[in-house]
Task: structure prediction
Amino acid sequence: MAMSDQPWRHPRPAPELSETRSRIATSPALSWLYAWWPALVWAAVIFSMSTDIFSAEHTASMFDPIVRWLHPSVTAYGLDLVNHAMRKMAHFSEYFVFGLFLYRGMRKGRSGWRWTWGLSAWFVAAVYASLDEVHQAFVASRTASPYDSLLDSIGALFAVIVIWIYFNFPKRPQPSPQVSPAIPE
Result:
């Protein structure tokens, strides 16, 4: 039996990923889920933070001991101020992250920047922020505030602006390492 009769002896090299990617059938539902799962999980986190567990009384019980340990002479007014500031920073930052995840979902694996993706991500975040405040209106220990919804929307807008800056400002080229000529001895 000749070697040419045995194709397994000289197999073709394994294909590169770029060669096979176009031939792999991916489910539209699976690709959609891959693009959107971070935003969906984060929306659930935001929803859970709108419950009684994260009311002002509960967050104060978490922050007060830490603030008193850092600054033992803090007054009750100071504790209330710190709690209020932490809660507002949480509003901004959780929707900043949500804006990033929404933009990722809008892109669906494509590359680059598009205004439609950015504005859509911001719009979805703003609508979700409004619905989140409506949800808080039905929680006894929470209060709904249009200012919180505005702060949430601003956090998502900042995320979109950061993404725009990332894609639209050229990156500085890295200097190539200088190779010094060999010095003859």
Notes: The chain has a mean pLDDT of 82. The chain has one domain: 34-166. Residues 34-166 form one domain. Residues 119 and 184 are 62 Å apart (CA to CA).
